[in-house]
Each structure stands twice: as C-alpha cells, then as structure tokens.
Design a protein that fits this description.
Layout (H helix, E strand, L loop, with lengths): L10 E7 L10 E13 L14 E2 L5 E7 L5 E11 L5 E10 L4
Antiparallel strand pairs: 1-4, 2-5, 3-4, 5-6
Length: 103
C-alpha cells in the first residue's frame, strides 16, 4: 500500500487495514512484528522511522504503526506481520512511505 509522503519533521500513524483478508468473526491476535527497509536511497538505520510500538486498531482488524520522518528523498517499506484468531492464518502488509521536504 502506498501512503502520502511525509516531511522529515513529521510524526504520523500508519493504519494497516487487514479487514479484507479476515473471514467473518476472525480478528487479529498475538504479537505484531514490524520491520523497515529502504527501497529508494540509502539509510543505514531505516528502523529509526518507527516511533513507538504498534497496536491493534478498534475491532482488532487493523494495526496502527507510529512513524516519524526519516531521511529526505528516501522511500521506506514498513512491513507488518500479525497472527489472527485462526491459528493457521498469519497476515502481512507493506506500506511504502516516501519522505520528502518542500520549501
């Protein structure tokens, strides 16, 4: 999923909506794993765009991930992997987060 570009001075919360992949009655459950890598440009510490722990959204069908601006003119892939109330089902989504600075 693509999200709007953020300024390096911004801090926002990304919403990863897993509802379309859940069957009726299923919810997200367990540990939320997040990882970050740079997909445009170089950043020796891409995980520094994470700005706190991820949490489940209302209804346990989404994950909220706080992020902050990274390096200018870089694009980051923020990946969330989470289990569900169905023990046989684990889901993953990736958000592409561009960081841009306009004057």
């Amino acid at each position: 999923m693509r999200v709007d570009a953020i300024d390096p001075a911004e801090a926002v919360v990304l919403t990863f909506d897993f509802a379309p992949a859940l069957e009726t009655g299923e919810t997200l459950a367990g540990t939320i794993l997040t990882s970050v890598r740079t997909v445009l440009g170089v950043d020796p510490a891409p995980q520094d765009v994470l700005n706190g722990a991820p949490i489940f959204g209302i209804g346990d069908t989404s994950v909220l991930v706080p992020v902050k601006g990274g390096l200018v003119d870089r694009d980051y892939a923020v990946k969330v992997v989470v289990g569900t109330s169905n023990a046989a089902k684990v889901l993953a989504l990736v958000a592409h987060l561009p960081v841009r600075e306009d004057f």
